[in-house]
């Protein structure tokens, strides 16, 4: 087994982004004194499995559909390079699909119990998450090739991950939590947008109609700035609605890595130079979550 190729295919650098949304929902629960360690652990594990599933399906799907070609500027993909066979990748996708489902069931068991209406509702959310992870670039009609990836990321990394995690901690829904959920969703969408700006030429060649392919690079940069500004702004609105405390000012530190990312996307026109800023944006989202969490406790 080519361990190095599998680790590369897992794309571990994407995990901070996925875990940031779980952390946000958990911080919100802790701010209401309803945090549960077991929910955090199982939600994090389920999210890691889902993210790896998505990454493997993306590696497989983009190779099959031609998006991972010699024009692509990011890291070499495992299936496209021949380091991992198509059959082995299919097995791995199935394994992580099963792990995601089993872990999700355990999460629901400890949080809301099995058999209730809420259980079946969240079971549906979980199955939708598994389907979304796979069909983004795989399957006969991958929705990522129709430019719907941004909406999916906003829904699953933002609203479902944050609000869902909060609910599993507390068994409550709070309308105000939509603001930080929107922040995390927009930041996750920004990571995807950096990826799509980087791959604009190879995606165009493969017929992958991402947002940057549809609107062009210049408009995609403006779209990126909108994502960052709106994402940060909605979190500030949430902070301002809380009782005043000097400790809340710490969230202002989160603006600096966002400015760095915005500057890079605006100024760096070479696709290879953009690649490090996918990881930087993912880590920026994690840092934002931590600072926001400290600000609301």
Automatic annotation (TrEMBL):
The protein's annotated pathway: Quinol/quinone metabolism; menaquinone biosynthesis
Keyword rRNA-binding attached: no
EC top class, as a word: transferase
Localization of this protein: Membrane
GO BP annotation list: menaquinone biosynthetic process; vitamin K biosynthetic process
Major localisation: membrane
Keyword entries, A-Z: Cell membrane, Membrane, Menaquinone biosynthesis, Transferase, Transmembrane, Transmembrane helix
Topology within the bilayer: Multi-pass membrane protein
GO terms, molecular function: 1,4-dihydroxy-2-naphthoate polyprenyltransferase activity
One Pfam family named in its UniProt record: UbiA
Chain segments annotated as coiled-coil in the UniProt record: none
Gene3D superfamilies the record matches: UbiA prenyltransferase
Residue stretches spanning the membrane: 39-57, 91-112, 118-136, 148-168, 174-194, 223-241, 247-265, 277-296
EC number of the protein: 2.5.1.74
GO cellular component: plasma membrane
NCBIfam families in the record: menA (TIGR00751)
Name of the protein: 1,4-dihydroxy-2-naphthoate polyprenyltransferase
Native source organism of the sequence: hydrothermal vent metagenome
């Amino acid at each position: 087994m080519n361990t190095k190729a599998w680790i590369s295919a897992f794309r571990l650098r994407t995990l901070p982004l996925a875990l940031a949304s779980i952390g946000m929902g958990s911080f919100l629960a802790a701010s209401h004194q309803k945090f549960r360690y077991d929910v955090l652990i199982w939600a994090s594990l389920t999210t890691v499995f889902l993210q790896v599933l998505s990454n493997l399906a993306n590696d497989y799907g983009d190779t099959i559909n031609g998006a991972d070609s010699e024009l692509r500027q990011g890291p070499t993909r495992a299936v496209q390079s021949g380091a991992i066979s198509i059959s082995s990748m299919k097995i791995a996708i199935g394994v992580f699909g099963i792990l995601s489902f089993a872990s999700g069931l355990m999460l629901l068991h400890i949080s809301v119990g099995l058999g209730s209406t809420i259980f079946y509702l969240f079971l549906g959310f979980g199955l939708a998450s598994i389907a979304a992870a796979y069909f983004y670039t795989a399957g006969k009609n991958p929705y990522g090739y129709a430019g719907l990836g941004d909406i999916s990321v906003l829904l699953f990394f933002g609203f479902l991950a944050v609000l869902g995690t909060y609910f599993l901690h507390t068994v409550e829904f709070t309308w105000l939590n939509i603001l930080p959920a929107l922040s995390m969703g927009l930041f996750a969408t920004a990571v995807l947008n950096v990826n799509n700006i980087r791959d604009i030429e190879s995606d165009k060649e493969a017929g992958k109609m991402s947002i940057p392919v549809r609107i062009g690079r210049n408009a995609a940069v403006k779209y990126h700035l909108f994502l960052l500004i709106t994402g940060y702004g909605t979190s500030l609105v949430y902070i301002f609605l809380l009782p005043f405390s000097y400790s809340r000012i710490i969230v202002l530190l989160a603006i600096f890595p966002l400015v760095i990312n915005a500057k890079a996307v605006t100024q760096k026109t070479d696709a290879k130079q953009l690649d490090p800023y996918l990881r930087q944006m993912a880590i920026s989202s994690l840092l934002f979550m931590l600072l926001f969490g400290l600000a609301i406790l």
